[in-house]
Here is the input.
Amino acid sequence: MVSVKLRNIRKTFGEVVALDNVSLDIEDGELFTLLGPSGCGKTTLLRIIAGLEFPDSGKVLFNGRDVTYVKASRRNTAMVFQNYALWPHMTVFENIAFGLQIRKVPKNEIKKKVYDILRLVRLEGLEKRFPGQLSGGQQQRVALARALVVEPDVLLLDEPLSNLDAKLRIEMREEIRRIQKEIGITTIYVTHDQEEALTISDRVAVMNRGRVLQIGTPIEIYRDPKNEFVASFIGKSTLLRGVLKKILDGYGVVDLGGFEVKGKLEDRFKEGEKVTVVFRPEDCIVGDTTSENRIEGIVESVMFIGSYFHIRLSVGGKSVLVKAEIDKNYNEGMSLTFSIPPEEVKIIRPGDGVEVET
Amino acid sequence: MTTPKTFLEDLGERISRVRLYFDPVTLFFLFFPTSMFILFLVTPLIGMLGIAFVYKGAPSLEWFIRIFTSEYYINFFGRGTPWYYDEKFNMLVITGADYGVILNSLIVASIVTLVTTIWGIILALLFSKYDFRGKDFFRILSMVPLLLSPFVNALVIKKIFNPYNGFINWLLHDTLGILPFRLYIDGLAGIALTQIITYYPIVALNIYSSMLNIDSSLEEQGENLGAEGFTLLRRITIPLSYPGIMSGATLVFIFSLEDLTAPIVFHGHPLAKKLISFQIYTRFISETGLRSPEIAALAVFLLFIALTFFVLIRNYVSLRSYASVSRGRMMRKLEKMGIKGYIVVYFFILPILILTSLPQIGVVLLAFSTRWVNTVFPEGFTLMNLIEIFSNPDVFKYLRNSVMYAAMALVIIFFLALSTAYVTNRLRVRGIAVIDLLSTSPIALPGIVIAISYFYFYATLFRDTILDPTNVLYFNPLPILIIGYSIRRLPFALRAIYAGIQQVHVNLEEASMNIGAGRFLTIRKILLPLISPNVLSGLLISFIYIVGEVSISIIIGILNMDYAPLTVYMRDVMLSAVGSQYIAAALGFTLMSMQLLVIIIITFVFKQRYAYIGI
Here is the structure.
């Protein structure tokens, strides 16, 4: 198996900087996700790893070997395209067998391998069909099988689930995770769906505007966003800008104009510095009037999510999102108090200009 | 952080990058068409410039000055009247007036362009906006003039408009009495009439496809804002169709300028000879040995006009291809036609459409006639003419030559079209636009100009070899014809293959390369199978237009009759004894049948649209 290292990748299309000095280390056997909004450069990065694009500068290393200028066909990566890119003039069997035929694998071995992989992706019996005769989920599995059958060093998945409906998407992402762990193949997964990224990945790199803003396990990314972009892109959170008033023992008190919040310092700050305070709605304890970090606000809107409410509060002219149980009624205009444990409040630097070095 | 690269590292990376982009297949795909165009299109044309711009061994405008100062070429005052009424015979004679060779050509081309464009707009509007009974029949009728029957269709037009026993005068004057006088159309007017009838479908089809591409919501928005009827047409529909109108009109303008068949057929009238194309041709045919630089200058002038229009229109059309801007296109509901509409369609449009299909119908009749000289209709019918062309080895030879040349040219066209379409679609390399321009330009380059530039080219570079056209004894036109056909008829196949590649998502090829197949295998196993209907359709269309090719054939192919193609023979027959026109018609009939067969195969077997000509 193979580890993938990217060093200072830069890629421009005309005036547009698609990738700006991107470096990443992807471990052997890891399921690594590139997460970001559309246009953030994640697909370009994937195509550079596949050899379908070439960086303006920087290096791509497979197991330490420089493959930056190795052709796509010689890299032994296998990519699953967003639109599956199944060849419409070939049957499922022919689609999957193609890569093996290119590798001059003997015929009976091809047959065995194709049937094995069909079993793995649970498509037995469909080998004679043409792609046009398959459902979206089945096409997806064929694309995956076609990529896996050649035993690639790296599996590349470009938004593989975006063309499926919501239910199938959840099913397929569990399927991909299962197969990936079963073979133990180094996998790079591109998605704009943060939920998908958090559930499927070993580690995630959050990207925006051609840069990697944070790398970590899904829990790290979710719990400890290092900058405003990551905090707002992953899950729901409240971001408030203010001034750091006091520092005490890893914690700080932030003046948010009218009210104060105590939180954990995520960086080295000086008193008086401008900072951003981040906390998640689910960490707010609605109705708690006794603990630290008590905040009172006016209910602006109530959104019924399913098993709970999301309530938007106006606190001193600022907007705050809290989670509340559905056992009580909340009305617009009423006043509401909540508290938030200081260890759940992160104090980070404003903006998303933080460049993460691996 | 990035450390500054040393010069050597930088160079190394650059070389790696270039090697990645340009694998052997890509290099071949770039190199093959480029070298073909440079060798067999650009070089001959530049060589011709070298002749036209040299006088007594020095660069000079002498030949151009001679042309532009001579009344023979340009005469602003004109000689004769374009038409007059002959009382003695009760006849309206329309021949056009003589403004000199250059102005005559431009006037004829302008009139032909104007009339075909207006008529094309009317037809395109009718077909794209209205639903009426018999529409399919109307559409088929409007395509009939596209059936190729070089020389013979012009001959039939002459026959149909014959003042004494032509069908038109018989019908309108003798029988129905609608015309109070006989109509006699000849000379420049005859040529213009022939060209209008032959070329209008090109404009109509270009405009039609342009109109089909208009997002109906744009028109509906116009209606919604209160525009209706003619205002809607003038302000919204027609401006949105400009790309189609302009490219159709330009093509017809150029086709009219370069047309040789109508002038050759009408050249019995002295005015018909006073056209640029005919002048180039006739002086070329008649002069032996060294050809006059004055002809080259005339050809350069023709080339200049054609190229200017081509480049202008290409830029304009690509700038204005806004038909594809909006998304979510919906088919506009066709309007049902009211009673007034039916009257217009059946009493105005239909007669004209029938008139314009008469040449092709006439060719068929002539092909099966025993005798059709001084009568309105053939005197009798026979299969002998058709049997003759297949049984008489002297006649069949020409058909066989043409088919053989076409088959060989198709091999070259296949590689040219595939490589050009591939690199222009798939490669992001600077300079691709040049290949794109060169590969599509032959559609607008006058055939006669290419033909005589070939003559100079081979006579100079291959002097005293079998490729030297002035080598009376041993000249073999075969390679020259095949290459010439390949270049001239490339755009037809190219257009089809280009459209095919455009429809194949690039991911399909990337998936193959990603999985380990090189570019060659990817093209052979993935791309070609996917676009095979387009490839075959395109090649078939090119095939037909090669067999029907006139200019290169009759300038180069005529020089050794053993190797002469079909159209040379058709021309000869046309100019010789009266009896042999039936054979020419039978050949025209054969050619049209082949074309019909191709259309049927393309439409029903390959499920493609029969691609017509456009920019």
